[in-house]
Amino acid sequence: MFRDDGSGAPDGTPTALLAALGAIVFFSTFSIAGTQTALGASILLWIAFVRGGRLAAPRRTPVDFPVLLFIAACLVAALCSAERIASLKGLKNLLLVSVLYLFAFGVSTRRTARRLFATLLVSGAARSACGIAGFLLGRGAGALGRISGTFSTAMTFGGVLLMTSSLFIASLVGARLGARARVAVFASACASLAALFLSSTRSSWLGAVAALAVVLAVLRRRWLIPFAAGLALFVLLLPAPYRDRVRSIWNPAYRTNVQRIELLRGGWRIFTEHPIVGVGTHDLAELYRAHMPPGAVHVHGHMHNMFLQVAVQTGVVGLAAFLYLFASFFIVVAGNLKLDLPPPERAFAAGALGALVGFAVNGLFEWNFGDAEVVTMLYIIVGANVALAMSETGGPSVSPRGNKQLRDCADIR
Questions:
Q1: How far is CA 122 from CA 102, 119, 182, 291, 301, in A?
Q2: Which DSSP string corresponds to 95-147?
């Protein structure tokens, strides 16, 4: 359980840092520029508050060694690459892991966590409403009116949406919310799912289905069969263009499926030539061009598969480190579900587990770990779970009065 705060700060987190973390959460669904500006401010504030004694010095977390091992594997791959400068520049996204640690060390009480989750609800609903409005105004792309919200691509939009949808649905079905909170979460969940559908991003659809199945398996197992039946009925009742979009998921002759199969074959050829530490963390367009299978036309700068991308760029060394890193995220979140948590925290952990599964499924078809907006949301979710895990294992126990307050925290007022 998040601990009650014994410092002078009412929330355990200084107000300025809480505001900066809130800005990261808010902008994470809208703008990478806003998110990274808030991230820079949060880092500076966190350093200042630690040096000034207002925040405790950081301590070890369950993900430290996997994080360092993956960073080291990427650095070795970059240094050994024939494109060393480009590969070193390509490591910049690794800096986003600082988001994970800011939330791990900055979310120290349930009041802080509750405020940040409320911020995500507001931001998520607004982001989804913006995307839906774009669809209704005819600003979507292609015959289906595919929307991307305020992001540059529908894949990024869908990747973020599938994770927030998992959190919102988990809170709705498992957090035992008060009346007003239930309305707010229901509205955000419906808006997120609607925007996700209108993104027409098949990989995110699959990720969301996997995420929601995990959430229900943890919180409402008896709902799994009705969920599957309802999903099948929903697909059957879709207008023909959307139903065809769903069917295309399993059609190997569909044009983008053909391209992904070509990428798998070309990526495998690259990997077999550089199996140990890979080719480096740079754009792969020229390498892929030289290894394209016969008949392939389209050149891509990445593999549209995060596991293959990591294998090609960093070899078996980097792939093993990446799998270890991802496993450590699962271990932290699954471990939280084994704790004796009040419903809001348990629902959040279940939603986080769903988000991780959805991210992994989505990553079978997209380079989502290299998408700054998507991986930032992942780090926010994992960081909050690290904070929960460390508070349970290292923080002081809360008083009975604190426990009542924490049970009541589901009612967002």
A1: 21, 5, 13, 46, 35
A2: GGHHHHHHHHHH--SHHHHHHHHHHHHHHHHHHHHHHHHHHHTT-SBTTTTB-
Residue with tokens 């779970």: 385
| Residues 243-301 pLDDT 10s | 999 999 999 999 999 999 999 999 999 999 999 999 999 999 999 999 999 999 999 99
Task: Compute and round to an integer the Cα radius of gyration of the chain.
Answer: 21
Residue pointed to by tokens 């959040």: 348
In this prediction the pTM is 0.92
Q: What span, in angstroms and rounded, lies between the C-alpha atoms of 59 and 38?
A: 23
Taking alpha carbons only, the member of 208, 329, 274 closest to residue 76 is: 274
Using an 8 Å Cβ cutoff, are 303 and 312 in contact?
yes
Q: How far is CA 360 from CA 21, 357, 363, 364, in A?
A: 26, 5, 5, 7
Measured distance CA(109)–CA(242) in Å, rounded:
44
pLDDT of 127 higher than 90: yes
Structure tokens at 196: 């996700």
Rounded Cα gap, residues 382 and 364, in angstroms: 20
Q: Which of 123, 110, 109 is nearest to 175 (CA)?
A: 110
Distance CA 270, CA 310 (A): 12
Q: How far apart are CA 132 and CA 138, in angstroms?
A: 10
Return the bridge partners of 146, or none. Answer: 141
The three-state (H, E, C) secondary structure of 350-380, written as one string: HHHHHHHHHHHHHCCCCCHHHCHHHHHHHHH
Q: Find out whether 78 and 281 touch, Cβ atoms under 8 Å.
A: yes
Q: Cβ distance 12 to 109 under 8 Å?
A: yes
- H or E stretch covering 314: helix 306-337
How many whole angstroms separate alpha carbon 154 and alpha carbon 140? 10
Name the packing angle between helices 372-394 and 306-337 (round to 10°): 30
Instruction: Please state, in angstroms and rounded to a whole number, the distance separating the CA atoms of residues 21 and 291.
Output: 44
Query: In the numeric block, which tokens belong to residue 148?
Result: 């991307």
